[in-house]
Design brief:
Elements lengths: L10 E8 L2 E13 L3 E7 L6 E2 L4 E2 L4 E7 L4 E7 L5 E9 L3 E3 L2 E14 L5 E4 L1 H7 L1 H4 L1 H20 L8
């Protein structure tokens, strides 16, 4: 099966790679794969609570995650255990691949947060991105990453964000 297969499956493993190593791998329910966009649902896979100051990810949270094979980002809708929408956490990544039961994405450090009401949109980890050296080692990928973050911010602030998820 190719990495771009649209073959359905009930469960997949999501593998997040950073710096050439697996950062995290977790099970998810495959919701859809149309050959371009992959949608999965997964429980918070972190250990305990992660408090960013503007949002807390905690056990019981549910993430509906969208990955694209032709875009340099992923979007994760975050809901509390009771169903309340917390917001969307967006990772700038290389385009996703899927081989059978595995979805693989490479994290490029840049992130964006959009609160549930859309009033808080913030760029994250630009310092980590600069420190990664990607601009020096792979300037084309660095340019694509910055462009992806700019696109996400424009969508999050000016409309069109919801269209990504429908």
């Amino acid at each position: 099966m190719s990495a771009n297969s649209a073959e359905p499956a009930t469960g997949v493993d999501v593998v997040l790679v950073k710096g050439g190593r697996t950062k995290i791998c977790y099970p998810a329910e495959l919701l859809a794969d149309d050959g371009t966009r992959i949608a999965v649902r997964a429980a918070w896979a972190g250990d305990g609570v992660r408090d960013f100051g503007f949002v807390r990810f905690e056990p019981g949270d549910v993430f509906t995650e969208y990955y694209w094979r032709d875009r340099w980002y992923s979007v994760k809708e975050v809901r509390a255990a009771g169903g309340a929408l917390k917001g969307w956490y967006c990772d700038v990544t290389r385009p996703a691949t899927r081989a059978g039961g595995t979805v693989v994405v490479e994290d490029l450090d840049l992130d964006l947060w959009r609160s549930a009401d859309g009033g808080d949109v913030r760029r994250l980890d630009e310092d980590e991105f600069a420190a990664s050296g990607l601009a020096r080692t792979d300037p084309e990928a660095a340019h694509a990453a910055v462009s992806a973050l700019d696109e996400l911010e424009t969508l999050a602030r000016g409309g069109g964000f919801d269209a990504l998820l429908t």
